[in-house]
UniProtKB/TrEMBL annotation:
SUPFAM superfamilies: S-adenosyl-L-methionine-dependent methyltransferases (SSF53335)
Keyword Methyltransferase: yes
Domain Polyketide synthase-like methyltransferase: residue ranges: 163-409
Pfam assignment, any one: CMAS
Positions of the UniProt region annotated as Disordered: 123-147
Name this polypeptide is given: Class I SAM-dependent methyltransferase
EC class: transferase
GO molecular function: methyltransferase activity
Keyword Lipid metabolism: yes
EC number: 2.1.1.-
Amino acid sequence: MGNSDQMANQESVADTLRPLLRAAFGPDPGVAFEFWDGSAIGAAGASYGTLRVRSKEAISHLVWAPGQLGLGRAFVSGTADLDGDIFEMMRALRSSSPHTPGAGIGLGPAAIYQAIGAARRLGALGRPPEPPPEEMRSRSGGLHTRRRDAAAISHHYDVGNDFYRLVLGPSMTYSCARFAGAGEQPDDTMSLADAQRAKHDLICRKLGLDARSGMRLLDVGCGWGSMAIHAAATYDAHVVGVTLSREQAELARKRVAAEGLSDLVEIRLADYRDLRGERFDAISSIGMFEHVGSKRAAEYFTTMHTLLRPQGRLLNHAISSIGGSVMTSRSFVGRYVFPDGELIDVGQVVLAMERAGFEVRDVEGLREHYALTLRGWVANLEQEWDRAVELAGAGRARIWRLYMAASALGFEDGSLGLHQVLGVVPGSAGDSGMPATRRAWG
């Protein structure tokens, strides 16, 4: 028997991993750790819940992919799990991490060194474990080419409409809701469906849709058609919705038909770059811009500008981060959630819109609303966990729970933002046709 095997037999897994956990999360993160041999750390004094490490493969994931990707692989594979209030547990682990306080769960240099030593003692330094099958690894073609964008969109959205219905609820809207009731007063007691309806209506009003004139609206990245349906049903708008997801397009068409709006709404399986030679009175871009990328931002806004008539308006609703953030292939979100996704600083969004010829008239931040939205989605997922696993598989369900909870914390602490930026194409004499105040939007 080798020395490493003898040492592993002489001490518990908890004893072996104690230095690693101290280096990664500090002396007292308020979370208990339980291991596959039955040993534990901090079980008696845990305030928030228990992180269960079910096999040494979880340690292998950390050693071969230090940081959030390795941690993510451990959770997606089921070799590690969080048992308790996922929001409080993740907040506690993030805030206790001595090397990146508040920035996320990861491993600093000291923790990586400890992980290698612990893995050697536990016999976990063999060949790297196979990543969970839900991970997107092959990316053919240049960044943000049509083919690669279509593959990235399919990876995220074509995972089953029934799964999304379970998570999102009856509104089938996969973007930040707006929890504001009568008189625009904040109301965190609103249902998700009502808050999504309030968001759609706010966008319609910002875009100046008028039921008396039958305006033509383009909804870029239309999802399952909720915005298109609201605009047509409420404002008699003629809507073209485009998406790269086949499953979204199929269900969106069914929903439009069920609402009796097929004469007003057309859903296309198309790339925004295919929209040439058409004219619209307004464009809504809701949760779409995150997939465009900074290198394509100028092209995107120029395309939107050419599609609008004079005095036409664009509402860009997108997640942002200070200085921008690219979801690389070394990140959990980049591999499992939004391949090739990019969050662009709202200041750069405004500048890109202005350079494309838009007059920017309004910027509104809604990050607290997105935190509430995500908490609602996590609640839906956890409440119907067994059904979610049946529909999409255990790995996919774990991905969504982890990324949505982490994102909610990001919106709560301000590391993530959500902004609606409203621009208008000025008329020939510079007349915007815009009301003088926000109140005039109704």
